[in-house]
What does this fold into?
Amino acid sequence: MRNFREVSYNIIKNKLIYRSAALSSLTDEEKDFLVKECNIKTIIDLRSIEEHENEKDVEIEGTKNINIPLLSDEDKENKPVEVAGMTLPDMVDIYAKLVDLNKRGAWSKILS
It folds into this structure.
């Protein structure tokens, strides 16, 4: 399970919210861990519709999976930046688009 971790930061109740990369290649053991140890009941997939369709998450019995895209593929198109000799996406631009006021509806669904 890539990049899985709890999101609490001493602000959110412990063991309430987790984040991860795509859940498309989970093993049976990882599925059991999510349900039994983390008590996962709802998975909110924030990827674009295209990303979600291209790499579907595996089904986990007893959970509900909802796709609420925060970025479209067009939102992710930006000028790459050069950092230490590597070409990387402009993450500042991408993160700014995540909290754009036009995303209020998506954020409202996520937080509900």
